[in-house]
User: Fold this.
Amino acid sequence: MHKGSCLCGAVEYEITGPLGPIFYCHCSRCRKANGSAFNAATPIAAADFRVVKGELRDYRNAAGVSRLFCGNCGSPIAGRRESAPETVRVRIGTLDTPVEGKVSAHIFVGSKAEWHEICDDAPQYEERP
Ligand SMILES: [Zn+2]
Ligand SMILES: [Zn+2]
Assistant:
């Protein structure tokens, strides 16, 4: 069981199943949404994801991609895709429980920030694997 929360504590969530592989997405949309070099996330089964305190707000773009965040402090918590509702991609920086494992892949490296240097040996993909 994993637990996570937003910066202000208004939102808390639980993950009752295993975490998937950790990936860093370097695409420009993830950089905007996270204000950082990349989005560190892991796919989990949507059925294993439960908000136990507060509620998430949903920013959904025209392509049917939702970014779920705390409406009070703005912490990005998770993402999901209309075309794959069975999966939720949790922003692992919001987890409060320890995460076993390291980054398994870098995706959308073709559009990564020019000021960011990738310094590990995980495989890199131009877009998706
Ligand atoms: Zn918050
Ligand atoms: Zn991305």
